[in-house]
Amino acid sequence: MPGVPCGALQHHTVPVACAIICSWLLILVHSAFCQKPAKLPLVGRKPFLAAWNAPLDMCKLKYNINVSLDLFQISGSPRAVHTGQNVTIFYANRLGYYPFYNEQGVPINGGLPQNSSLEAHLHKARKDIAHFIPSEDFRGLAVIDWEFWRPQWDRNWNKKYIYRQRSRELIAQAYLNVTDKQVEELARLRFEKSAKEFMQGTLKLGTQTRPHGLWGFYLYPDCHNYNVHAHDYNGTCPQQEIKRNDQLFWLWNSSTALFPALAIRKGHMDSIHNLHFSQNRVLESLRLASLTSLPYELPTYVYTRLGYRDEAMAFLTQEDLIHTIGESAALGAAGFVIWGDLNLTSSRHNCSKVKAFLNHRLGQYITNVTQAAEICSDLLCQSNGRCVRRDPQAPHYLHLSRGSYRILSNRNGTFTVTRQPSKNERQMLADKFRCHCYQGYEGERCDSIEPEEIEEDNMINEDVEKEKKPEVNKDIQDSAVPLQKAFILTILLLLLNFSSI
């Protein structure tokens, strides 16, 4: 759904008796529903950031094949030997004592969050953060990759069902003469409470110790629109999953960035399914990004891959690059991250294939979309905001016009863009895109400075102070946000209806 531009709400003509009240309520409604500003870009005024998170350094070490990563503003290898990178991913064994069951069903660190010491976990996690991110002024992506269990009971299905099963067993052993229903309810409550404490506590530690970094969990949010084999598939997130995502308000409110993933399948490369799959996942992330108590929308960095989920070394077609990276840019994501594992560098052939893909199809497309995003930001938003589709479902992309631009490949793996501006270029962009202004700016073209610009450090400190409040108050605050909006709208509608009598 397109954001409501600031200034779009108008006062109605009403009797004097309720005019003042209605005006006050309109201000509250405007504040509640007007689109929040975007957080300033991580690097300069780059509206759409390109990030790399794959172990390409192994190509140089094993086969002396150099691959340029100059296309990417930030990069980092997921190998454990690397520290101090501006893209840092924390796998299960690299951050504290994450509890899980391995593939053989053996409990690691207690297996269940309610069967593990949160205090010991956070103590170890503090040391791990200091090791992998030594700089206290870290200004990059800090991504936590915990995939063994999900914090919501009902989402632990298939291989994750073991967490429900073992949670029930733990309750049955601790209590005598309890019914199956009581076991189920107690197991659910204790698992979800402990899972929340582990995830929320880890994020809090990260944002306290490295406050300028962008912290979040890989694959969150997920809209679970995986039923791609359905004949009527349109990619829509199931209503039940949207509701469950809303219930994770505490997670989004504790994060400083969102990291959804677009892992598409080769089996659907000739269909529109990949587009629908990607589009709805990004839209769901952007929806949730605006629901937190922060004064800005959380930045969304979309994780994607060089290849397909079911065939890693079959690299994305031009069409599917558009369906993933291009779609993310047009919808208003802050950037994308290309992830990969050691399979990319397992042979000389694979390394050569990755290099060729970066030097040609992928490199050209990344140059195209990132440059187009910058040009649109400059022309429409004075470089004080990013361009976002007016209609989220429209087939409009931030691509360089073939008639005005040329992308030239250089020998060192970089690209040069030559430009012959079109006279009506700005108008063509304005017809299809609108501005989402950065913090501190407002207006249709982001050319007005807000009266009071809040500094990032103050926002982070305020958020940390809120986290120090008792948990019961936090839950009340979480549930109050949607209720407040509903109450305001209800009262406003009643007053307006009354005034017309």
Describe the 3D structure.
It is a single chain. With 501 residues, the chain is α/β, with parallel strands linked by helices. The protein has a domain at 1-34 and 469-501. It is built from 14 helices and 17 strands. The chain has helices at 16-33, 57-63, 118-132, 162-174, 180-209, 239-247, 249-254, 273-289, 318-331, 348-359, 361-381, 425-432, 456-467, 471-499; strands at 49-53, 74-75, 87-90, 100-101, 107-108, 141-144, 214-217, 301-305, 307-308, 311-315, 335-339, 385-389, 405-409, 415-419, 433-437, 441-442, 448-449. The protein has a 4-stranded parallel beta sheet with strand order 2-1-11-8. Helix 1 crosses helix 14 (471-499), helix 4 (162-174) packs across helix 5 and helix 10 packs parallel to helix 11. It is globular and about 80 Å long. The two termini are 33 Å apart.
Features of this protein?
4-stranded parallel β-sheet, 3-stranded parallel β-sheet, 14 helices, globular, disulfide bond
Short synopsis of the structure:
This protein has 501 residues and is an alpha/beta fold. It is 42% helix and 13% strand.
Largest sheet: 4 strands, parallel
> How much strand?
5-15%
How widely separated are the two ends? 33 Å
- Please give the radius of gyration in angstroms: 24 Å
